[in-house]
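Budget justification aside, the reviewers requested a transparent look at the raw inputs and outputs of the sequence design task funded under Objective 1. We therefore reproduce one unedited record. The lines immediately below are the C-alpha cells for a 423-residue chain.
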C-alpha cells in the first residue's frame, strides 16, 4: 500500500517553517553566541546563504523526482547505486542525531521551568512524537502547523522588544574574526535543518512538482530573515556572554523585559517549538527509511505499511534517536548532524551540476543562472558545503563517521540476511 497524497501547499510551508525554526533558534542560539559572540547574526546570515544555494538544488531535484526516498533517489539518478546508498545512510543518521539534538533543546527548556533532568525530558518528547505520528502525516503536520504559528509569535516578540537595542546586535566583525564567525556557522547551521527533511514528504503531497519547490524556498527565506533579526535582537538585549550560558536562551532574552512571567511564557513557547521540530524530524526520517525500504536499500520490511503508515520505519527512527541520548551534549550532536549534512549537500549539488552538464530536460522547477552548461548556484552550493567541513571540530567528525559506520554496517548486514533468506 502506498502513501496518501493529502498534503497541501500551506501545510508544507508551515511544516517547513516549523521544523526549521524549532531546530535552531530555540535550541542552539546560546551555543552559537558562546562561539561567535556578538557576530552571531552574521553566522546565521552565512548559514542562510548556504542553505538557500543548496535549497535551490533541492527544489529542482524534488520537482524532478517527487519521491519519499529523496536524496537516495536523487543521487541514484546520476551516480552509482553505492553512492546513493551512502547518501541515504548518512541522511538516516542525520534524522536520528537531529531529533536527539532538538529533544535536548526541549529538555533544556523543561529543566529551566521545572528542574526536570534534561535527558529524561528529551527521551519523553521523542517517545511522545512517535505515538502522535502513529495517526499519520496529515494529523502530524496539521498539529505542527498550528504550533508553528506559536513559534513565529515567540520570535516576533523577541524582535519587537529588541528594536530599541537592535543596532547593538548588528556588530560588524573585523576580517580577522571571520574564522570565529564561520565556526559559529558550523554550529548554528543546524538551525536550517528542515528544508531537506521537507522534500521527503513529496510522495504525500498533491501536485508535488509545483508545490514542493515553492514551499522549500519560501521556508528557507522566511526562516533566514527571522534568524538574523532574532539573533541581533538577543545580543542587543542581553549580550553574548549571558546568552551563551543559558540552556533556554530565548526565555533568558525576554526575562529583563517581562520578568519571571515572561521567562515562563517564553519557556513554554520554546517547549512547543522544540517539540514541534522533534515531531517533524521523526516524521521525515521515518519517510526516508520507508522510501529506502521500498527500494530495498535497507531491509524491505521498513518499506511496508500498516493502516497506510510506515510502522516499522517509524519505530526504528524513534529507537535510534533515543539511543543517541548516550551523548547528552547538544553542541556535539548538532555538529555531528552538520558534518553529515554538508557532505550530503555537496553530493546533491553535484547531482544538479551533472544534470545541467548533460542538459537533462526538466518539466518542473529548474535552478536558474547557468553559465554555459554549469549551474552557478549549484557550484557555489558545492564549494560552500565542502568548505564548512573545515570548521567542524576533528573529534566531532570522528564521532559522525563512527556512528554512521555503525548504522550502515547494521543495516547492510540485515539487508544481506534478508536477501539470503529470500533465495
Amino acid at each position: 500500500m502506498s502513501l496518501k497524497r493529502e498534503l497541501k501547499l500551506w501545510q508544507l510551508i508551515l511544516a517547513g517553517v516549523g521544523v526549521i525554526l524549532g531546530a535552531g533558534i530555540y535550541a542552539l542560539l546560546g551555543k552559537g553566541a558562546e562561539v561567535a559572540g556578538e557576530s552571531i547574526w552574521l553566522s546565521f546570515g552565512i548559514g542562510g546563504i548556504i542553505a538557500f544555494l543548496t535549497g535551490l538544488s533541492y527544489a529542482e531535484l524534488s520537482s524532478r523526482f517527487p519521491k519519499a526516498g529523496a536524496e537516495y533517489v536523487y543521487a541514484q539518478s546520476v551516480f552509482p547505486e553505492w553512492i546513493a546508498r551512502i547518501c541515504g545512510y548518512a541522511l538516516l543518521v542525520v534524522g536520528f542525531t537531529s531529533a536527539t539534538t532538538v529533544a535536548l533543546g526541549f529538555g533544556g527548556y523543561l529543566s529551566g521551568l521545572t528542574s526536570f533532568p534534561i535527558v529524561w525530558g528529551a527521551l519523553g518528547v521523542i517517545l511522545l512524537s512517535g505515538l502522535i505520528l502513529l495517526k499519520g502525516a496529515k494529523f502530524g503536520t496539521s498539529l505542527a502547523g498550528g504550533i508553528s504559528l506559536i513559534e513565529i509569535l515567540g520570535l516576533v516578540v523577541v524582535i519587537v522588544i529588541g528594536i530599541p537595542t537592535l543596532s547593538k546586535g548588528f556588530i560588524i566583525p573585523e576580517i580577522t574574526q571571520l574564522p570565529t564567525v564561520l565556526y559559529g556557522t558550523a554550529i548554528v547551521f543546524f538551525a536550517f535543518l528542515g528544508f531537506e527533511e521537507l522534500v521527503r514528504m513529496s510522495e504525500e503531497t498533491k501536485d508535488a512538482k509545483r508545490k514542493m519547490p515553492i514551499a522549500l524556498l519560501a521556508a528557507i527565506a522566511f526562516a533566514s530573515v527571522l534568524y538574523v533579526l532574532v539573533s541581533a535582537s538577543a545580543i542587543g538585549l542581553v549580550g553574548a556572554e549571558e546568552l551563551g550560558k543559558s540552556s533556554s536562551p530565548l526565555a533568558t532574552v525576554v526575562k529583563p523585559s517581562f520578568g519571571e512571567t515572561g521567562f515562563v511564557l517564553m519557556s513554554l513557547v520554546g517547549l512547543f517549538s522544540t517539540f514541534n521540530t522533534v515531531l517533524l524530524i521523526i516524521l521525515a526520517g521515518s519517510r526516508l527509511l520507508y522510501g529506502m525500504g521500498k527500494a530495498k536499500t535497507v531491509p524491505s520490511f521498513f518499506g511496508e505499511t500498516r493502516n497506510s503508515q510506515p510502522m516499522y520505519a517509524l519505530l526504528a527512527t524513534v529507537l535510534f534517536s533515543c539511543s543517541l541520548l548516550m551523548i547528552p551534549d547538544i553542541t556535539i550532536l548538532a555538529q555531528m548532524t552538520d558534518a553529515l549534512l554538508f557532505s550530503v549537500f555537496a553530493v546533491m549539488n553535484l547531482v544538479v551540476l551533472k544534470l545541467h552538464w548533460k542538459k537533462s530536460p526538466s518539466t518542473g522547477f529548474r535552478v536558474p543562472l547557468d553559465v554555459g552548461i554549469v549551474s552557478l548556484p549549484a557550484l557555489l552550493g558545492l564549494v560552500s558545503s565542502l568548505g564548512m567541513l573545515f570548521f567542524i571540530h576533528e573529534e566531532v567528525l570522528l564521532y559522525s563517521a563512527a556512528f554512521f559506520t555503525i548504522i550502515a554496517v547494521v543495516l547492510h548486514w540485515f539487508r544481506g540476511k534478508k536477501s539470503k533468506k529470500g533465495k
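The chain is about 75% helix and 0% strand. The mean pLDDT is 85. Computational costs for records of this kind are itemized in the attached budget.
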